[in-house]
């Protein structure tokens, strides 16, 4: 079976899995806390992790922001944990699909 990189990305898309983004994190907070309070919590997490809200890139920066978010405790920590789980799930699946693709093309 010969699976290309594009096919592996399509496989992720078939499961409606996209790389988590800052917008996803902010939306999750706003669903739980409302627009103003959710945004306030996000701004605090960005400030504590040395990032600028609106400019947080997927991957390491989002992980730093989510980790800082988790330090706020309570329901905010639960939202942070869900963001981190989504990130790790996405990257593990993408990695496995890319490894499968690499082996199939060898």
Tell me about this structure.
With 106 residues, the protein is an all-alpha fold. It has one domain (5-101). The chain contains five helices and no strands. It has helices at residues 5-14, 22-33, 35-48, 60-70, 74-105. Helix 2 (22-33) crosses helix 3, helix 2 runs antiparallel to helix 5 (74-105) and helix 4 (60-70) runs antiparallel to helix 5. The longest helix has 32 residues, at 74-105. The radius of gyration is 16 Å and the shape is elongated. Mean pLDDT is 87; it is low at 1-5.
Oligomer: single chain
Strand content of the residues, in percent? Answer: under 5%
Main sheet record: none
Computed structural class: mainly alpha
* Percentage of residues in helical conformation: over 70%
Count of all domains: 1
The global form is elongated
Got a strand count? 0
The low-pLDDT segments are 1-5
Give the rounded overall mean pLDDT: 87
Order of helical and strand elements: HHHHH
Q: What is the distance, rounded to the nearest whole angstrom, between the alpha carbons of the first and last residues?
A: 11 Å
**Number of H- or I-type helical stretches:** 5
Q: Taking Cα atoms only, what radius of gyration do you get, to the nearest Å?
A: 16 Å
């Amino acid at each position: 079976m010969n699976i290309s990189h594009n096919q592996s990305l399509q496989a992720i898309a078939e499961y409606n899995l996209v790389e988590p983004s800052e917008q996803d994190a902010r939306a999750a907070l706003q669903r739980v806390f409302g627009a103003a309070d959710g945004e306030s919590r996000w701004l605090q997490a960005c400030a504590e992790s040395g990032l600028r809200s609106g400019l947080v890139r997927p991957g390491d920066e989002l992980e730093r922001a989510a980790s800082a978010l988790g330090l706020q405790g309570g329901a905010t920590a639960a939202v942070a944990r869900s963001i981190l789980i989504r990130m790790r799930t996405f990257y593990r699946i993408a990695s496995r699909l890319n490894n499968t693709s690499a082996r199939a093309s060898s």
